[in-house]
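name: query_chain
kind: protein
chains: 1
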Amino acid sequence: MERPKAKAVLEAILFTMGDSVEIDRLAEVIEEDRQTTEDILKEMDQEYRKEEKGIRLTTLDNSVQLCTKGELYEYLVKIATTPKKNTLTDTLLETLSIVAYKQPVTRLEIEKVRGVSCDHAVNKLLEYDLITEVGRLDAPGRPLLFGTTEQFLRSFGVKSLDDLPELNPVQIEEFKLQAESEVQMQLDI
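structure:
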């Protein structure tokens, strides 16, 4: 294998593995002897040590690992602590609106309205801190009750649940009919 290709292969392996990889295993992959592989790794290490590179090679016993340069950790911390922007899919929005208007509500009640399982949606909304567990229903199995959070209010720019738009009774009836026809179509299939 030509040297530039061998470097690329070694770099790809070390990047993908994340952990240290034995030099003998790397030598097998690039079909070179151990000494040639070590020479290639030394060349790579010298290239990485240049100031404008953000990574370096670390040798651990008979293994090597691709690592971030220590002086760049502060930037890793910045990116790791930057909040992720969460995206609400139609399913999540539908589930969230059911919780907002019917709270406190159980998973089963949400599923009755939606007509499908809501486990994933509820778990995502909990993760995004838009809903929270507000207690347990006094019924067999003591199912969890869910309600919205202050983060929900902040995210949607409302001061209280009273500020949510009122549901139009005609639209509600249309939604019910639409849901019933969808359920019937599912049963016919």
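note: Residues 169-188 form the longest helix (20 residues).
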